[in-house]
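[audit] Reproducing an earlier prediction to check determinism. Same input, same settings, fresh worker. If the tokens differ from the archived copy the diff job will pick it up downstream; this log only records the rerun itself.
[audit] input (573 residues):
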Amino acid sequence: MPAHIIKTIHLEHNPSKAREHAFDRRAPDVEYVTAIAESVNHQRKAAARDENDRILSSIARASRGMCLSTTSTSLERLEYTPQEDTLTINELGRKGFGVHQFIKVTIDFLSAVLRTFHLTRVLYAWLAKYGLIQSPDGANTINEHSKLLVTEEVPASGFFIELLCEAVCLECAVMHSGMTEEERVDTTARFQDPNSSLRVLVLIYGISLQGVNLDRSCWQVLVMTSGRNFATEAQAVCRPARVSQSRTVNITRLFLRNSHDEYREAKQADKAIPDLAMKHLSLDSKRFIVKLLNDANANIRAVPRAQELLKGNSHIPFQKSMRWLFPDPSCSEIENALTAAGKKRKFMGQVQFTRRTSRRLDPVRNDENEGEDDKGDSQASGSDTDDLAYPSSESFGHSFTKELRRRYLWLPEELKNEVSQDVINFYRFLSYDPDKVYTVDDPQDNEILNRGLRLLFGNRIGQAQERLRVTPHISYEALPKSLADAIASKLAQEKETIEDVASLLLNPRASTSLAAIRRKNDENEDLFNQSNNESESIHDEGMELETNRDEAVEVEIILDQSIKLENDHPQEI
């Protein structure tokens, strides 16, 4: 049986799509936070079961909205469109909607989704790469027997992918929980048949697929949305990887930065750690974990800003952006904000990077002006609580991760929004000592073992980055207030355009013409683009957020089999 290969590819929105994605993510974000807070309050009050069910359904609906906005901003908005506002094809036909108009609508649809659905371009690129459709330049060769398995979390996203495939005359089927056993068997048999016209199969996670093996004619798998845990995902993506498979199965996982994908990936790792810890305690497994830890040191050394630490600069960079986690006691703004938030706990000061000692997390011990205890070392108590909190044997880089989590959870809700998750990742990454040579004894430290197991999990799924996502929220730095207002205005104009077109279809003799509607829509698009271009470039204190500016280049890069992933640049971690 040939081995299967898993790789994770990191993608980025271009600037305008990143802002639109952030705009659409706000509603499910707010709904999620509200439902979680409501859930905690009702648990304390021992609420009725039906009330708890309502809250849980709100949490599930918000999570679903986050997944849909990652798949497509258009799909997320379509999800909340009332069904009574739509017309079926038969109804449109009775209104005089001809074949040529359906063709024009299809072209407009493809144009729209390519602008608003980042992963659409990737999907079409993969279809062209494996010979299912003709590439725009006509350079590829159509393979009549090539098939593609796509996995998704939300059925609506699966049906959207089916719509995209059929828009380019490619037969696609979605296997979901609403199908009968006979329908599943028939769909599986058609997909297994190398001569059938069914070329793309979308598999939804969590459905019963006992005995469904897809190894006869499929060896390419595309993960559009990762599973809620890796066991669920592996159950779907490994359907073609069976003993009778004659070809190497290529599994490609798509990962969109600053999206719900990051949180799902972090939760996957959290759930996989206990299982990995039980199965990888042999000497050979520890040696492999140690190898991963030592290999990761090269990534830390490659970070330009890490050179400041190696040269002896003891202060963490980006201190300004992390002022809430590591506040300056002399700053009245921070002191007043914490006081207003009702925080009465012990003040937590700055942290310094000094790789000569392991007692670096205690802000008091880092204060050069702090006086020494009158008692000598020989008189000091062995049960000093500070020593228990900051043991000298603990690796600073790994205990720093715990400290980041503790400080973040300590912040009031209104100040948590001021902390950048990307900078948290960067802090944690820089806290690891790149000069440390790990040995097989080091995994006895729980924090080092935890990091090693996360690297092991990343190695399994082809994930090159070390990421820590504390909350499900994305970064909204790309969405200034002025631009949010411009996007809201654009969406209002889109709704008005749809209503105008619907009125025209219902009443072909209306005074408004389709050309006038299109002209008005183009004018609104020009105004929005002007506002978009005038928005300032997003910078995070000298660390520019790199984006893909040319969508054509994006697809060309994706089509290239020798992909150079952007996540090889540690400065973005």
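[audit] rerun output stored. Observation attached for the diff report: The chain has a mean pLDDT of 67.
[audit] end
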